[in-house]
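Submission checklist for the structure archive. All mandatory fields must be present; incomplete records are returned to the submitter.

[x] Identifier: RNA polymerase subunit sigma-70
[x] Organism: Actinokineospora bangkokensis
[x] Residue count: 185
[x] Sequence attached
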Amino acid sequence: MDRTRRRGADRARPDLAREDELRAAYDAHAAELHRYARRQLGDDGAARDVVQEVFLRAWRAADRFDPEVASLRVWLFAIARNAVIDHERGRRVRPLRLLPGDELSALAESEADFVDDVVVGWVLEEALRRLSQEHRTALVETYLRGRPHDQVAAELGVPVGTVRSRVFYGLKALRLAMDEIGVQL
């Protein structure tokens, strides 16, 4: 955790209210945000609208950005997630009638589930990066891969109690990392 805070303290806080800083943030992150939005929405025009909305929201909320909590990239992707969800909600309110009603609603539900799954995976990956290697390995092997503690302990060459302890403290650190990112559990 101290390592994360130190990295955050070393970064200069961009003043997104200034045009040059906002332009630099746009140049650095717009293409990646566009790819993310296009993957989620399946529409290039909608993805461009979402990216524009992301930077408008970032500009309006520039005073709430804290580099000690999350990097600019993470903060922008959190805004992008919300913008994608808002866009999907708006599209559901005004659905296109290109497909029969039941097919359209099933498609909208599957897209929303897909968007949530991708964003949850991305946030979890970002939170796992903030953990120590030992905690990350213990959590990935036991929770994500569903392997028994004794099997993981034998593979790592440590006692089973050590693996259990790493899982316990890893979960605590993961909760803290997700809080820092801004995810409510």
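[x] Structure attached
Curator remark: The radius of gyration is 20 Å. Confidence is low (pLDDT under 50) at residues 1-11.
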